[in-house]
Design brief:
With about 170 residues, this protein is mainly alpha-helical. About 75% of the residues lie in helices and about 0% in strands. Helix 3 runs antiparallel to helix 4. The radius of gyration is 19 Å and the shape is elongated. The termini are far apart. The model has no long low-confidence stretch (mean pLDDT about 90).
Amino acid sequence: QFRHSLTREAIASEIPAPRARRLHLEVAEALAAGGGGARAAMLFRHFAAAGEPVRALRYAREGAQHATRVGAFPAAIDLLRQAVDLAPASDEAPAGLEELASALRAAGRAAEAREALERARASVADPATAARLDVRLAAVLRMEGRRDRALQHVRRAIEALEPTPGAALAEAIV
């Protein structure tokens, strides 16, 4: 820890990039050995700086869940935006986008939530996941007063889920 950010920046700028990445990775792995929890946001930053986007996304999601539980939606949104931008093509990106949309929706930012859900929906191939995202999209579209588009998404979700009745289908119907 440094008392002044300029001191930290001056010292950090003198460390060669490969060594800085290695140091960030060592710190992240040491912290991760103690569990994420409240340290998840710090783990995200260290794994991101180490060039480990998938691991960074995992801890960003965990940190955002912790922030959301205490009502710190701006912190959750910031973490998830950074993480999704860092690992846009990873297998975890759609889930990160869905969680980002949830935090944005809880913060009353429907248009941004819709955009995140549309990005997530466009990147999944699994019909059940796509249907779940359609249901979430419909809820956000209703918030925006776009009832007709919301109904289109609900109908698409119901059509995809009808062959396998269950809780997801019930949620789409309701």
